[in-house]
Amino acid sequence: MQRKTIAVSARTSLHFLIRKYIRHPILLLSIGLVALVTHGVRAQSLPMLHADGPAIVDAKNQPVVLRGLNVGGWLLQESYILKTDSLNCQWRIKQGLLRSMPDAAMEEFYQQYRAGFVTKEDIDFIANQGFNCVRLPFHYDLFLTREQRQARTKALTSGNTDAYVAALSKWYDANQLFVQPDKLDGVKLIDDVLKWCAANKLYVILDLHAAPGGQGTDRNINDNFKSLDLWKRTDAKGRHLYQDMTVRLWQQLAARYKNDPRVAMYDLINEPHNVNAANGLSTDNAELNALYSRLIDAVRSQNDQHLILLEGNGYGNEYTNLTPDRLKSKSTRNLVYNAHRYWCTNDPQASDPNPNQINLIHNLVAFRDQHKVPVWVGETGENSNDWFATAVQELNNQNIGWCHWTLKRVEGATSLLSVKEYGSILTPEGRAALLRNSRFRECSQNKDVVAALLQPGSKSLAFKKITLPGTIQAVDYDLGRNGVAYSDTYAGRVDFTKHTPWNEGGGYRNDGVDIQKVTDTGSNSYAVGHTEAGEWLHYTVSISKPGAYKVQVRVANATAAPAKLLLKLNQQVVGTLVVAPTGAATWQTLPMTTAALPAGTHTLQLYIEQPGALISWLKFGEPK
């Protein structure tokens, strides 16, 4: 998954599912589980999926829409997920660790990390939210033996990548790569995930996230020593060894899982990018065509008919010369075309002039219809809740599935789970805290993200139960869309070149509302600020006693002009408060008396008539 500052011609964003595109009711996987013996282990069986024109269908030709979660940062560490950005990628994290520990101790840390970062509890949680699949991103080095991984470790400490390539070449010729699967960490981890997911009726997408040599220039996702070595590097015999290794890896995986219906798709290579003339390669994706065709044929040579997910150039989105009619593979049956949608518009009418650039919804649908192939959004996320919900609804309308990035991250607002800050991964204390904090039971759940993904409608829901008399924390406004639960002038990022945060304070919730940390007495450590005239917040409240309320409002105003707040019920103003400037962010408690409020459940609106106030809480006393 590509993040942060990479410039691509049209990166993107998407979401959700369900309606009618193919005149069948959508099967949302209320499928009975059947016992199946796979690799000698009793497993729960889901129907094998295949392509029927532009649809993904089950064994009874009923459409199946896959919507789920990526479990990123687990089998390949990405620096921004762990907040080790200065280290940039997994091999640099390892390089830093090796300055203070031997290789065996580092290997032990990674064994512990992989044993705890995602467990059955995490998978159970995903299923309990209502998702039906998991995309499993992994590093190719997990399919090396531990002794073979040591050769890679020597390369990252010495910088001598030639010796590593020579060793790989020797093992390749001796047929010692990716064999004895029962002894490989990667296979054991896949088998665990398949078992956990099948118990929850979840499909699994196998995703080669870091391919041998690296599929692009962004080492955060490739974990490559040198850019584009997958496409450029040759061994002493002149072979593109990393490509040959990729083919052999997928041959071995196909041989093992060819009859396993728990696997929905094989995602052959994650986010190829910058495979272009500027980097000494072709202008028309010729390298991708050649390797994808080899990989497809390698999988099919094992009599494996699983769905195969292709990812275009430009981080998974550009398919010039990669359409089914242009591929050189012997068979183009059961192919699915992928889009990764980040930081782009969800307007279904917006289009890219290149019909093979499919991150925009219009192009995605047109590509599906023209080539009669299923399309799927393998990654989307890293945006606001309003952006998520909008994307979900638009994908619903087109019956296109998606997979949210990602399940968990350190101090994550856009993930489903947030891991508490742990210090530095380079210290023993930091590593111990990371191992502890990343376990499911230690994570906090971002229920606003879950609601945006799975309840993206036009109604708001109470974020917390609020009863009056009582206190309303300003940041506990309702769950819901911009314009429904709240109104903010900037509520999501739709241009990948612009990095303005949708939440200026960056705290507490993932909406356009600007929330910042505060130390005010009586607050929950957060307050609403950076307001603009005309913005508002909705609160679902249960008024137990009718009458006029005396309200204490905790506010500050560091601007030079008075701020003015209105309290509304059914669009009628029931209270007014002027907040005079204090010349600094000095907290004050100001009185406000409301008009008579009726008993029952109602929606109160806090309306910004004049901006400038930092709002902590509103305390409603006994009514008169």
The total count of strands amounts to 27
Count of DSSP H/I helices: 16
How much of the sequence lies in strands comes to: 15-25%
Low-pLDDT segments: 2-43
Helix content: 25-40%
| Global structural class | alpha/beta
Rounded Rg: 26 Å
* Overall 3D form: elongated
How would a textbook summarize the main sheet?
8 strands, parallel, barrel
Strand arrangement across the biggest beta sheet: 5-6-7-8-9-10-11-12
Mean pLDDT: 92
Through-space gap between termini: 58 Å
Describe what this molecule looks like in 3D.
It is a single chain. 26% of the residues lie in helices and 24% in strands. Helix 3 runs parallel beside helix 15, helix 10 runs parallel beside helix 11 and helix 14 runs parallel beside helix 16. The chain contains 16 helices and 27 strands. With 624 residues, it is of the alpha/beta class. The strands form seven sheets. An eight-stranded parallel beta barrel has the order 5-6-7-8-9-10-11-12, surrounded by four helices.
Topology:
Elements: E1 34-38, E2 41-45, E3 50-52, E4 55-57, E5 67-70, H1 79-82, H2 90-97, H3 103-116, H4 120-129, E6 133-139, H5 146-158, H6 161-173, H7 185-198, E7 203-210, H8 219-222, H9 229-232, H10 241-257, E8 263-267, H11 286-301, E9 307-310, H12 313-316, E10 335-341, H13 361-371, E11 375-381, H14 385-398, E12 401-405, E13 408-410, E14 417-419, H15 428-437, E15 444-445, H16 447-454, E16 467-468, E17 470-473, E18 486-487, E19 515-517, E20 526-528, E21 536-543, E22 547-557, E23 563-569, E24 572-579, E25 588-597, E26 600-610, E27 613-620
Helix pairs in contact: 3-15, 4-7, 5-6, 10-11, 14-16
